[in-house]
Amino acid sequence: MVDLTPHEALSGISGSISLVSWIFVLVPQLLENYQLGSADGVSLAFIIVWFIGDLANFFGAIWAGLVPTVIALAVYFIIADAVLLTQCLYYKRVNARQNLTADLTQSDTDNPEQPLLGRRPSDIGLPGSRRRSSVSIKRRDSSLPTPVLSTIPEEEGYVRPWVKNTICVVAVCAIGTAGWAIAWKAHLWVPTPEDSGADDLGENVGAEILGYLSALLYLGARIPQIVKNFRERSCEGLSLLFFILSLLGNLTYGGGILFHSVSKQYLLVNTPWLIGSLGTMFEDVLIFVQFHIYKKAAEEDSAVE
């Protein structure tokens, strides 16, 4: 068996954890949209740009002749992106029809003789009355099923998401570590020579260009979501676990590269992937800050009401 150095073991474990993170990263948002019956919290531009970034990553992997597992993972990303994009478009179309029907019904029943006191606040059109929280209002309608989670006391509701997210992160790390250990023992994973790929700099310009393009797309993808959250002063409809797994995946992906080697040539070869992974971590942290600020503001608004 080939000797395994500590930094190669850390590189392999980090890469394995990153792989597991990316396999499950979109699942929380898919479930969030399904449970709400809406995708209003997700920026379509975010998903579309991310999808294009994965396409660039896929073609770059083929062009560079990377190992089949990397190409297979790139294909999985494209399929998962397409599923999330299709779900978002479906819910936006369905909700647009429902809103149009509701507006038409309201216009038929609303007339100048109707007393102002008999109207709902949303009928009057007060500033800020049409917020993303309208999804929750629709869920409280008697004609719609009430989610099971709505019966949980409010105090428990604040604890459960953090417990769930922590368990998920620990599980992903455990699965990734166990997967790497099994692959190592079964000789399915072997350390890569530290100087591997260092001589490839400049030999495949096309693949390198696609690598930088995908990195820029990944960096730019989160900007529309950040702007959307800022404009609406809300992160409602977004899955916090989605961004936690994204942060974990990017952190461990970059760690897998850096643990392997920090030689100048090696880092130059992997610069696009380091930019795409470590660079987006700052944007994920900004979204975490938005989650905290807007949740606190919503709690204060509820206390005033």
UniProtKB/TrEMBL annotation:
Chief site of localization: membrane
Catalytic reaction(s) noted: L-histidine(out) + L-arginine(in) = L-histidine(in) + L-arginine(out)
Compartments reported by the entry: Membrane
BP-aspect Gene Ontology terms: vacuolar transmembrane transport
Lipid bilayer topology: Multi-pass membrane protein
Keyword Transmembrane: yes
GO cellular component: lytic vacuole membrane
InterPro entries the UniProt entry points to: LAAT-1 (IPR051415), PQ-loop_rpt (IPR006603)
One Pfam family named in its UniProt record: PQ-loop
Transmembrane residue ranges: 12-31, 43-64, 70-91, 167-189, 209-227, 239-259, 271-289
Superkingdom of the source species: Eukaryota
Gene Ontology molecular functions: basic amino acid transmembrane transporter activity
Region (Disordered): 105-139
Keywords of the record: Membrane, Transmembrane, Transmembrane helix
PANTHER family named among the record's database cross-references: SEVEN TRANSMEMBRANE PROTEIN 1, SEVEN TRANSMEMBRANE PROTEIN 1-RELATED
Protein family (similarity comment): Belongs to the laat-1 family.
Name of the protein: Vacuolar membrane PQ loop repeat protein
Organism: Cladonia borealis
